[in-house]
Amino acid sequence: MSRVPGLPRLRPPAHLSKALDRLPGREYSQSTQFNALLTRSRPLRAAEPLAIPEKVMRTHLRLACGLLLASVVSANAQSARVEIVLDVSGSMKATMGSQPKIDAAKSAIRETISGIQEGSVVAMRYYGHRVPPEPKAESCKDTELVIPFQPLDRARMLAALGKAVPRGQTPISYSLEQAAGDFGGASDEERAIILVSDGIETCGADPLATVRDLMARGIKVKIHTIGFDVDAAARAQLEGISQATGGEYHDARNAAALADSLRQLTQRALLIARDSAYGQEIRGGNTYEDAVTIQAGTTYHLDHHQRKDDYDYFAIDARDGQKIVATIQAYDVGVKIRGEKFEEGKGEFPYSGIALHASDKQRVAQVWIAEPGQKKGIELPIAAGRGGRFYVLIGNEHYDQHRNARFEVQLVDISDAKSGRDAGADDAGAIDIEPGETSGYLNANDRIDYYAFKVVPKATYSLRAKPNAPEKELVLAVVDRDGVEKKQVKAPNGGAAVRIEALEFPYEGKAFVRVATHEFVQEKLESRYTLELTSTGGPAPAPSAAAASTPAAAGKEDETTPAGVVSRRTVVWIGLAVVAVALLIGVAFVLGRKAASTR
Fold first, then answer.
1. DSSP conformational letter for 42
2. What is the Cα–Cα distance from 420 to 280, expressed in whole angstroms?
């Protein structure tokens, strides 16, 4: 990966540097207070755009071809086959500076061939080299496998370059379909196509649809593309082809971006047989912009050895009220990278490093280790308003790093009052609390917490705060709704509880409690604390509507009935008596009529 731009190297003290180069088991780390760093650190500057001379352009194209090829044919990697597909259409006659593009492409391929390891299985295909643009139908079928898959034959491949004479159309889609068939039946080998083109498809087909169809049919091949002095439309098409197949795109016009990509491809060439014994295998991005998102709680290891001063970029999102804990564990042996080859062990120390950068791309902490199996971590609590995207960089500035070094990122909940967030540093960010006990968290990045609680007249309120860490000293204060500080108490010593008792407020509303770290006394020390709020007195709560409408219990006088007023219960009894008398009279009348009729 790339070196962090604009970032000075961290070095051990001068009198120890030589000893550290010879001895294992040494560690050098830096952790900067987050809030201060955001205001003091120098911003990282992006690379300036460069004007690319003709010779440099040719060199970068050559390196792109060579390193893309090396990435899939390394003798230390799994079994792999790769096919170069070269654009030899009429547009390749155009000059780049004083040299035709086709000559620059041939030069790049010659250099690529010279760097391929013996025994590698390589093929080469051209398109647009035999038939002129018209008749178009025939020219759009002009693609030829000039070197079929076989162990490397440099002489034959160099001789085949004589056939590369630009003539016809640009049948990218048809050529890729034919190239995919060159690999034969399915197998477990790594398969890759490297397509070098200076333009867009001209035969009316859709290359992206073609490669998606190949994948849908189970034809697995990665297609890496190199845009050679292409316009925006051609670049987008070539990028789409690579993205759809898991390949990589490189632009031969941008020296800075290409240089970074070439480093990444060099690392890919150093793969060992894949395994999962050291966590999930992963490859990071090359910059902040293409950082790969990782999951909290998952153990990872890189899919490549890492050169000194190169880094893989990863990203993780964290909210305020969380703490990022990132760890790195060294492998059992070190690795030495020399050119395109590497050596494991042989006395090499297993240097491994991890760094954490904030969303503004400033480094906040880093650590490196050098003992076999050693594990170290860095932590970053996220204060109120500081949440967002953070970057994890894997690599170190001292030595090559083994791919099996494990790393992991955890997100720990350190929110205040179980709210899922951090209490703010003023009343605007206060968290509401009720009487009872709750907990909070203070650290170097979060030295003040505000809470709000309801108050009423004629009630008294008491507060108590106590840190968990015996060295931590707290300052407790209460502020009314107008911002007037009612009282403040400082802890007499570390670990001591602080209390504010018997506070009264002449209004009904909110008051605020501030829990802070004692300035200059263990202010950077992380610690939980407990916060207890109690209240006594005050007016009795008004009866609820339900209670007011509930009838008095039977057998008990309604105490709410004023004197001289007939109660509701009495009215009920009188009504029942009247109904009973009426029923008796009615029954007597009926019986009297029946008796008279019998006589």
1. P
2. 29
| CB-count burial class (<10 Å; 0-12, 13-18, 19+) for 118 | exposed
How many Cβ atoms are within 10 Å of 216's Cβ, its own excluded? 8
* Beta carbons of 166 and 102 less than 8 angstroms apart: yes
Q: Which helix (H) or strand (E) holds 256?
A: helix 255-268
Amino acid at 134: E
Do residues 483 and 508 lie in contact, with contact meaning Cβ atoms separated by under 8 Å?
A: no
**Residue 356, phi then psi, degrees to nearest 5:** -120, 125
Burial (CB < 10 A; 0-12, 13-18, 19+), residue 415, is buried
- How far is it, in rounded angstroms, from Cα 526 to Cα 520? 14
Per-residue pLDDT of the chain (599 residues; tens, 9 = 90+): 444 443 333 333 333 333 333 333 333 333 333 333 333 333 333 333 344 455 555 555 555 555 555 454 443 334 577 888 999 999 999 987 777 888 888 877 777 776 666 677 888 999 999 999 999 999 999 999 999 998 888 899 899 988 899 999 999 999 999 999 998 877 767 788 888 898 999 999 999 999 999 988 888 888 888 888 889 999 999 999 988 888 888 887 643 343 344 334 433 432 333 344 678 888 888 889 888 889 899 999 998 899 999 999 999 999 999 999 999 999 989 999 887 788 887 667 899 999 999 989 999 999 999 999 999 999 999 888 889 999 999 999 999 999 999 999 999 999 999 898 999 999 999 999 999 999 999 988 889 999 999 999 999 999 999 999 999 999 999 999 999 999 999 999 999 999 999 999 999 999 999 999 988 777 778 889 999 999 998 764 444 343 343 343 333 344 444 444 445 566 566 777 767 766 767 666 666 666 555 54
- The C-alpha angle with vertex 476 and arms to 472 and 479, in degrees rounded to 5, equals 155
**Letter for the amino acid at 172?**
I
Q: Which two tokens stand for residue 587?
A: 């029954």
